[in-house]
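Feature request, filed as a ticket because there's no other form

It would be nice if the structure record came with a short human-readable summary line next to the tokens. Right now we just get the raw output. Example of a typical job, pasted below so the devs can see what we mean:
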Amino acid sequence: MARIGIIGSAGRMGQALVEAIAAAGQDLAGGVDQGGDLAALSAMSDVLVDFSAPAALEGNLDTAMAAGVPIVVGTTGLEERHHWLCDSAAERIAVLQTGNTSLGVTLLAHLVREAASRLGEDWDIEIAETHHRMKVDAPSGTALLLGEEAAAGRGLDLAGHSARGRDGITGARKSGEIGFASLRGGSVAGDHTVHFLGADERLSLTHLAENRSIFAKGAVRAAQWLVGKPAGRYGMGEVLGL
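Raw output as currently delivered:
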């Protein structure tokens, strides 16, 4: 039984994690939010799960390193600097960072990389995502995760081959581009589709999240898996053995 500490326990994901930890038969070490005593929580935990905010990540990683506790980072909206911080922390503790903890999305990402690799470069790739009206970042962390997998399958750098928010007279689609489209509204937990569009045929791979509990369940499974792992940077694919 793993003692799991929650960073961002008062948020919607934090509340879902409390239920998921109990359902998985694990032990809730406690939770903290802004201004809380994370050092004390770290001392009581076998592993931490962070669904707080990008601005808090550096301090959270520092505290986890000081306590020698592994951490699952599910916070979205991360920038390049945050990934550098995760890499640095992974030299001392086990860090599992992902844009989506859903097991279904994890498998989808694997399939996207396979499809991008095996289909020819004349197949265009477009990623569409829909989320609830309160989501503050776009494209979603999951869409970017899928974009990274598609780019990796093609041997491309996503930053140099992505197209976002097309508007006006944009000209013809550039070869090798990976396009993103974001929709916001209602209470959608998260829908993602990766379209592969070839001449006279299309292939679409889709994941539909009906409840945020799926992300909490996946995060708990990741936390259990991470306990006892050596220092390093890990991903959800390794949790599923992909």
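Something like this underneath would help us a lot:
The CA atoms of residues 144 and 185 lie 19 Å apart.
Helices lie at 12-23, 38-44, 57-67, 80-89, 103-118, 141-154, 213-226, 236-239.
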